[in-house]
Amino acid sequence: MKNFFNVLLLLLIPLLWNCAFIKWCIETRYDAPLTEAVIPESTLAFLDSLSKRLLSGDDHLVLHRVDSINVDSWNNDHDFGRRDSNGFYVYEEDTMFVIYSDKNDSELLAKTLEYARSAVRPLEQVMGQYYYPYMVNGRKLPLYLCTDEDNYQYACRSLCNDEDDYSNTWGLCVQSYCGYDVLAQGITLNYGSMSRISRDPDLDLKATIWHEMNHYVYFQSIDLSKEITMHTWMYEGLAEYFSSNVKRQTTSLDSVEKKAVYTNTLEASFDPFLFNYSGGELFYEYLKATYGERVVLDFIQDIYTQPLSSALTELGSGMDKARQGWVGYIEKHYI
Ligand SMILES: [Zn+2]
To answer: Are residues 164 and 51 in the same domain?
Structure first.
């Protein structure tokens, strides 16, 4: 009889424990994740510097730290572009993208969608993967196509929730993060400015979409639980390296950029700011020319989860050797 009670007790204890665990899971399923505390300090410092700094140049990247990303935020029904008062047309026939446009121009919308879709496969090849809606809680990537420069400014300010001046930019990728979650608020496109300035606005529209979508994939891919370094040249250079498949901007360096080659180290963002785009792109180009495309892919995978110094060690290089190789490559081909 005593044995019977012992066996019963042995069966009951795990059963009760499991019941208590299931109850806790159900009760806490909508709580905000308490994971931010384990984002390493150095990674948080990089993320904060991105949130605070207004980046200047042709393309921006904005990453905001928010208190919480609730379940509804992923649903496109709550996008800024859908609010009645702002006058954006909504195009959502596509399974991956939703376009909010200030002009009901079917030809331009079809072109924008085609350019966005054309980036998906190349992103998978260069970045290792693309983030389809099913991988981000069903969220389609919102594109804000603005043919009017004031509307562009309005869309940027609304997504960024500030009053900064975005008029000198052609595109913006706005994302928010909380804990380990990164949510893409949307990509804004200044087609009004492209049409006014560019000789080929459609080519610039496509290159800008590719650039901003590269930011989308990069920041979805980084592992915030790890110690990582995100110097500006690393992600702006990568976005330029990728969008060069559409339009190559770094065909020559001006005298200031040429000088910057000798004064910048790889361990910080570059100065002057625009050199992050050209100098950064040429770093990836140097890697490809020296080690091949496969190694560039490995390096990109490594910087999602490791500091730059470790990723370079994996390459069999190291910081000093990589800098020497990068400077030597630019000297040979661009100076
Ligand atoms: Zn950018």
So the answer is: yes
| Mean pLDDT along residues 92-110 | 96
Domain contains 22:
no
Measure 59 CA to ligand 1 centroid, in angstroms.
4
Cβ burial of 198 (10 Å; 0-12, 13-18, 19+) is: middle
Phi-psi region of 112 (alpha: psi -120 to 50; beta: other; left: phi over 0): alpha
Residue 259, phi then psi, degrees to nearest 5: -65, -35
136-180 tens-digit pLDDT: 999 999 999 999 999 999 999 999 888 888 898 999 999 988 877
Q: 256 and 198 in one domain?
A: no
From the CA of 218, how far away is ligand 1's center (Å)? Answer: 11
Residue 166 is classified by DSSP as -
Distance 7 CA to ligand 1 centre (A): 64
Does the pTM surpass 0.90? The reply is no
Of 227, 249, 273, the residue at which a domain comes to its end is: 227
Who wins on pLDDT, 165 or 264?
264
- Domain residue limits at 217: 36-227
